[in-house]
Amino acid sequence: MNTAHDLFLLMFNLTQVHDRPKIIEMFLDGLHEIFKPAVFQFTKENIEETRFDIEIKTRRSHFGFIRISEFKNDPKEHLPLIQSATQMLAVMLERLYFDRQLQEEKKSLEQIAEERNKDLQKKIKELEQAKNTSLNLVEDLQEEIKKRTQYEQELKESEERFRLVMENSLDAILITSPDGSILSANPAACNMFGMTQKEIYNAGKNGLVDQNDPNLPKLLAEREKTGKTQGELTFIRKDGTRFTAELSTSVFFNSKNELRTSMIIKDITEGNAAEKEILRAKEKVEISEERFRKTQEVGHIGSWQYDLQNDTFCGSEEAKKIYNLKQEKDEFTAQEGMQCVIEQDRDRINQTLIDLVNKHKTHDITFTIVSKNTSK
After folding, report:
1. What is the pLDDT of residue 235?
2. Annotation: CATH topology of 166-267
């Protein structure tokens, strides 16, 4: 019997199991089968402190001990193999623990995303209703922004998760005390304000927020009342430039029962500029399309687009007028289009379309059409 090979097969089989008690049970049964008549037991604590108790641990985690008894021969011969297998068991159990943690985090994030999506859909519906009933859309939007609040989910304080969130967040995150001093600032905050962490700490909240912003008293009052608030606010960079950002802030108590404030800041300057640019581009397209339609109408010129996949045509308003086709219809089959051409020209048109598609060869072609709803 190849003991090392049997241990390898045992550990491989354990990788297919995702239940911690089952993994430990299979591990003990497998060791017993390989090293008969030795007995292997799992214990949480090493009470007897025997020299044949092997700790199941990694650098960060401890899971218990494997106690060995009733070895037929001196166990020292196989002890290194058993210790290696136990170390692999510890790695598997730690991996299983972290996998479950990740699944819980994923589920939590999915729930948050779903709730935020519901909230967004609700706000969109409210905005649409306001748009239909309001005489002044700008005032309605401003009022809607004032009413918006952000919910806060209670999370247990975790130093590692806090560090990961702070370092990897694309938004600026500040942790402050009630007196306005800043206790923590992530790299995104340093980048956003153009300051080092020390400079941010020295500036304090009063040095980063435009004190003349009219939204500031409203946001402070809302947070004082509800413990949290969200809205747009003007901030100041190191070079003195001001920028608009979306602020989410809430009040909480840390593990020492000390009052703290979190501030999540998202720069929306580029987003506002991009939105305006999209509206300007849309207006230009609409103007261009209207000019194109007028040009075709004045010149009595039509245009067609051919869909190769569906073998259909769609034409401009003027094209449908020329062919005397229904204006309310958007698409026409190739057969409907050919019925508008006199029979002796149809083969020539078909060949032209084939050359255009297969050979990318353009043509100037003259042919005679017959209006669909008339005899000529």
Report:
1. 92
2. Beta-Lactamase (3.30.450)
